[in-house]
Amino acid sequence: MRYRISNIPLWLDEDEGLLTRRAAERLGVSAAHLREVLVIRRSLDARKKGHARWLVNLEATVDGEVHAAGADVTPAPAPEPPAPRVRAPAAPPIILGAGPAGLFCAWELLERGVPSVVVDRGKPVGPRRRDVAELMRSGALDPESNMNFGEGGAGAYTDGKLGTRIHHPAVRKVVELFARFGGVSRILAEGKPHVGSDLLPGAISAMREELERGGCTFLWGARAVDLELAGGRFRGLTLADGRTVDSDRLVLAPGNSARELFELFARRGWPVEAKPFAVGFRAEHPQPLIDRIQYGTERRHPKLPPADYKLADNPRVAGAARGVFSFCMCPGGVVVPTPTEPEMQCTNGMSNSHRSSPLANAGMVVAVSPADFAAEGFEGPLAGLEWQRKWERAAYRLGGGGYHAPAQRLSAYLAGRPGTAPGRTSYRPGVVPADLSQLFPPAVREALRAGLRSFEKRMHGFVTDEALLIGVETRTSAPCRLVRGEDLQSPALRGVYPAGEGAGYAGGIVSSAVDGLRVAEAIAAELGPA
C-alpha cells in the first residue's frame, strides 16, 4: 500500500538519505520495506533564526504491514481518473482572455473532447515581450500589448509564483501542467512553487501550442467590444475590427485590467458590482537585508534561498480596523510598470527563476472598499475602477510622466518627511523623488503607516533608509465582479461564464487557473456525456 508521510524534518547540513530512514521510523517498518519513495513537498521552516530546517512530505509504497498512527501518516491519495468526454457543442465555446483562467479552461474542455476559440486583445509571447521591453526602456506604452494584456495574461511577466491559499484538488493539476510545459520539475516539490518570469512565458507558449495541436484556435489582437444576444442567451462576440465570432457559450476570463469590458457591462445594465481590493506602494529593500532579518546567522548558508516574508496587520484608523498586508513578495526580483491606459501609473513585481537580483520587493497595501470610493464621490458598480484611475493619474503626474514612478525612502514616508533622492532601485524606466503622502486618502495613508510600524516590530530593520516605496500599487485584484450564479453563468446572460481574477472570482495564477477548470467542468456538465 502507498502512504504519505508528512513533516519529516531535515536540517540544512543533513544528507537527504536520512529522509527514507525517518519515514520508515514514522511508519514503524524497516527502511528496506520502502520502495518508490518520492518527495512531494519540501518547505523551509525558518521560524527560529539560526535553526532553519526543511519539512518534507514523502510518498512511499510499503511492503508489509504498517505499525503507525497519527495525522502525519495517511494513505496516499489515488490518482485522478481521466476526464470523461462530453457531447460536442454546435459551435466551439469562445474563451475571452488567454491568461491562466482562459488557458486552463481551454485545456480542461479539450481533455473532454471540446476544442475552443481563445480570443485575446494582446499579442503572443514573442512580440509581447518586445513591447514590454520598450515600455521599460523608453516609457512607451502599447495599450493593447503590455504587462497585463497578451498571451499568458498579467501572470506571464509578473513572477510566476504558484503558491495559493485555496485548498482545491485541482491545485496539483495546475502545478503539474506548469512543470510539464515549463520543464521545471522542481516546482512539484516546492512548498512555495515558483517558475520565474524568465521561464513562465515559454511554459505558456508550449501549453498554447499543445492546445492548437488539439484543435483550439487563438485569435490575437482581437479586442471584444460587444456581446450578441438573442432571447437573453449569448450568440456571438463582436470584435473591434467588426468581425463577429459565433457561439452559444462564452467564458469571460479577461484579467483584472479589462476596464472596457467592465464599462460595457455597466452600460448595458448587465450584472456587475463593485468589490473591495487593496492599494498602496511597492516596497524595495536590499535582498541581503531581508536575508539578515529572516535568517540571522545562517543567512549565507548555500542551501538557503533568498528570503521572503509575509506580513499582515489590522490597525484601527478613525475607529475602524483596516487590513494592511504585504502582497506578491518577490525575493531577488525587480519592480515593473503595469499600466494599460495612457497617463496612468501603476506597478507590480516579478522575479526570474534564480531570483538573482540584489533587491527584494513586495506590495505594501491597504484594504479599500466601496465605502472608501463613495467618500470621494464614486458610486455604482464602477466606483472602484474610477477610484483606481484617479490615483493612477495622480501617480503619473507625480512621477513627471513617461511612466517614471514617484518614489520616496520608506523611513521618510513613515516619518512624514519630504522625499529625498531615492536610493538604488530596479524599476525601469526610472524613479523620481516625490512626496508620496500626496497619494491616497488620509485613512489609507494612516493605515499604511500604522501597518509599516507594526511590520518593523516583527522584522527589525524593515523600516530603513535603504528601503524605497515606489508608486503606486493599485491592481491587486479586480475592482468589480461580473456576477454569476451557482451554475457559474451570468444570471442575465445565459451561456456567459465569468471566470478568474478579472471576473472577481480568484486572485493569482493558481486560483485563476483552478477557476478556469471549474468553469470548464460546468460547461461539460451542461453539454452532457458523449
Automatic annotation (TrEMBL):
Which residue spans traverse the membrane? none
Domain (FAD-dependent protein C-terminal) ranges: 276-476
Q: Which domain of life is it from?
A: Bacteria
What PANTHER family does the record point to? FAD/NAD(P)-BINDING OXIDOREDUCTASE, FAD_NAD(P)-BINDING OXIDOREDUCTASE FAMILY PROTEIN
Stated name of the protein: FAD dependent oxidoreductase
